[in-house]
Every structure is written in structure tokens, then in C-alpha cells.
Amino acid sequence: MAAENPAAGTTEEVDGDWCLIESDPGVFTELIRGFGCTGAQVEEIWTLDADAFHHLEPIHGLIFLFKWVDDKPAGRVVTDRSDIFFARQVISNACATQALLSLLLNLRHADIDLGQTLSDFKSLCQDLDPGTRGHCLGKEEKIRKVHNSFARPVLFQLDPLPCSPDDFCYHFVGFMPIKGKLYELDGMQEGPIELAEIGQQQNWLDVVRPFIEARMERYSVGEIHFNLMALVSDPQRSYERQIQLLVHQPSPLSHAERRLEIATLREFVKFEEEKKRRYRQENTRRRHNYLPFIIELLKQLGETGQLMPIYEKAKQRALQSEERCKSAPNQPQPQ
């Protein structure tokens, strides 16, 4: 699902367009790689059950896509926390990258290296106010280029229309623990939203879950237009480190147990390698411009007299399907 900036009609103009980004773990993982950050990736979460979070831990932050409504924040908006990196969103369609950067630039973990581009950007903006940081992001060509590498090819460029109250506008926000408190990082706000204290014995995921559930409950029955993803350490690195320890360090395991554990970990590594290969393949397809092929195919079908028969056949199937819907009992009529 692609996301729109919900305030596209009200944000300030910043040089350079930013494309819509699909809410997909492979896309966000490649954004991380493109920014030069290593040791992190994004995983999709299909359920809010605790077990769904447990096997991904450590989870450093969550990225939530939802149908945006202009509503009061769920907690206190803080504007006096210079130790939290927060940038206001002044760029249309940039909320995906902003949500991801909000997590990465507040993250301190031995597994994850921000890389030169993000480290330089954070250093440049560290002492600036959130609005100026947003403008700096709009001028950061390296980050914008990576973001726009997922721009979909279009045959015609239409003038953009401002969002109306009836439009379906979607928005990305981030959730993460920072110094013992849970924050929502939403670029449409004036600052980070302080949601709750996190007790010393609490898992922050248990604290954030009710807030996400409450956000989902705002939707009408049957609404599924939301998506949740987790920012995690690259599990392949963890598995490879465990293999090295089993191979080179003393272990209480017997030789047979050690061999079995190594074999299991190597299967996990293969699974992660295959997942990354699949992500690369899917992203290649996302970026490929199929329009010339489609136009040429339609042209060839037209020249050989095959286009209109195909069209008529498809039209007939559609009419038959509509008739079946009308005649089926207890079925809603097409609108």
C-alpha cells in the first residue's frame, strides 16, 4: 500500500518532488541499505499477539501506516527534548522516509551502523529546530534520491489535486522507547508525543500495543487499511555470529549437539539470504518500466486485428459477471 502525505495541500513547498512509498518490508529494508545503514532491516507484523513480536526481538521501533485523520495526539507533545531527534514534515509524500529516519536517528545499538550519509545528516541538524530539520531533509539529495528510486513510471503526468476531507490519505508514524519512555514520532506534530512511562521490568512492546490497538479501533468495522512493521537487527548477522562462537569457542554442548545447532543456524542463514534475494527481485520488478512493453503489445494487437476481439470478450465476461451478481440471492448489488 502506498502512503500519501495527509497534509499535501498545506505543507510548505520544498525543492524537488518525493514519490509515494509502498508499505512493504522489502522496500523499507532496501531504503535502509540505500541510505548506507547496515545491521538493520524491517519485518512485517501480521498480528498484535505477543508471540508475533517475540520471535523478532530485539525490536528497536515500529512503523505504523494508517488512514490519517486530523485528531488530537494520544499523549503529550514535547518540544523541550533536544536529546530526541525529531523533524517536522514539510515535504509532501515523505512520511515513509521520515518515519524510518525518526527511528534510525534515535537508535543506539551496537548491531547497527548509521553509515556516512545518515551520520552526516544527523550531525548537520542536531542543533536545529524541528521545522528547519524538515527543510534540511528536503534539501538532502542523497536521501531523496534513495527515496525516489521507488518512483513508479507513469505514462502521463497529471496536475496534483489537494487532499479533500473525503480523500483516503495514509500516513506513516514511528513508535519507539527512548530513555525509559514510549514516544510516537509523527512528523505532522510539533514534536515527539510522549505516550507512557516504561517500567524497569516492562517490555516496551507490551506498553505500545494498547496504543496501536486503540488507533485501529478508531476505524469502522471491516477497515483493514493499516500496516505495521518492525525495525529489527539483521538476524542473519546474529545467526552467523552464533555459528562462529560454536565453531571457535568452548561450549557445554556435546559434539553432536553442537553440530546439530550449527546445522540449524545455517538453515536460518539460508532462509534470511533467500528472503533478501526475494526482496531484491521484487524491488527490481517495482522499478522496472513496463509501459513501453504494454504500449508496444497493444500496438501489435491492434495492427494484427486481435485487440478489439480481446476487448469485446473481456467486456462480455464483465457483463456476465454483473448479471450473476444481480441474480445471486442475498448478494449486495454493485454500486
Automatic annotation (TrEMBL):
PROSITE patterns: UCH_DOMAIN, ULD. Residues 17-233 form the UCH catalytic domain. One of its GO terms (molecular function) is cysteine-type deubiquitinase activity. It is found in: Nucleus. Its main location: nucleus. GO terms for cellular component: cytoplasm; nucleus. Keywords: Hydrolase, Nucleus, Protease, Thiol protease, Ubl conjugation pathway. The record marks D186 as: Important for enzyme activity. CDD domains: Peptidase_C12_UCH37_BAP1 (cd09617). It comes from the Eukaryota. It is an enzyme of class 3 (hydrolase). GO terms for biological process: protein deubiquitination; ubiquitin-dependent protein catabolic process. It catalyses: Thiol-dependent hydrolysis of ester, thioester, amide, peptide and isopeptide bonds formed by the C-terminal Gly of ubiquitin (a 76-residue protein attached to proteins as an intracellular targeting signal). The active site is at C95 (nucleophile), H171 (proton donor). Its EC number is 3.4.19.12. The record marks Q89 as: Transition state stabilizer. Catalytic component of the polycomb repressive deubiquitinase (PR-DUB) complex, at least composed of caly/calypso, Asx and sba (MBD5/6 homolog). The PR-DUB complex associates with nucleosomes to mediate deubiquitination of histone H2AK118ub1 substrates; the association requires the positively charged C-terminal tail of caly, probably due to direct binding of DNA. Interacts (via ULD domain) with Asx (via DEUBAD domain); the interaction produces a stable heterodimer with a composite binding site for ubiquitin. Catalytic component of the polycomb repressive deubiquitinase (PR-DUB) complex, a complex that specifically mediates deubiquitination of histone H2A monoubiquitinated at 'Lys-119' (H2AK118ub1). Mediates bisymmetric organization of the PR-DUB complex and is involved in association with nucleosomes to mediate deubiquitination. Does not deubiquitinate monoubiquitinated histone H2B. Required to maintain the transcriptionally repressive state of homeotic genes throughout development. The PR-DUB complex has weak or no activity toward 'Lys-48'- and 'Lys-63'-linked polyubiquitin chains. Belongs to the peptidase C12 family. This is Ubiquitin carboxyl-terminal hydrolase.
